[in-house]
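ENTRY TYPE: paired fold submission
RECORD: A
CONTENT: sequence, then structure tokens
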Amino acid sequence: MRRVYLKEKKQEKTSLIPKTISIGFFGGLIWGTIAAIAGYFNFTEVTPKSLILRPWLQSAWSDQWLGQFISILIISLISIGLALLYYVLLKKFPGMLPGILAGIVLWFIVFWLLEPIFTNIPPFFELDSDTVVTTVCLFILYSVFIAYSISFAYQQHIGENN
């Protein structure tokens, strides 16, 4: 009887933070890899390495597969922070619409507000249509993955504790 009580107490105290961290890491890993593949097939001129490494490093290795790989890992780590931010602000909103809106906002932050940081990427109004469409879609898909996964885990956690 005491074991059952302790098990229930442990379940009540479990946090969604470890799950949120893994969702963020794997979201960055999956969608960063897809963005690299989209760049390889020339769907976009903006790839993970052009966002993460190339503005600061102009060495030869940062423009090859190693630079792409390291950039994807850095995006995965940054994605943990974005997932935690989403968890704090929007975890209670189910469905895909919050993720779609978050993806569009994130795209505008990266391509509009942070544009001066990324010197090797053309300015917002000079991006070709393939790059705009592909990156908007990738940002939306990434955000929907994060948002839907976190809100689903939150709703599941609430259901278990009731």
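RECORD: B
CONTENT: sequence, then structure tokens
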Amino acid sequence: MSTSFLEIVELPDGRIVLRRAEDEVTLVTLDFSADARAFLQGQHIEVAKAMFNVGVQMAGRLAEGEGEWHSEDEGPRVLH
């Protein structure tokens, strides 16, 4: 991924996206359910920022060869 500036934006429909600032290409989309928003008591934006931050850091590590990625099956995977 290029070193362009990224921005976190809440769209009018409530989705939160990470996108490139210069061309507004969406890279990642988060969509919190109503239950999740209620549980987070209005702090869903802060949670989204933290999730994006960790994701960008991990992507950087993978790009530098510091992590491992395994794609053996194209079906859903439980990641916890």
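NOTES ON RECORD B: Residues 6-63 form one domain. The radius of gyration is 15 Å.
STATUS: closed
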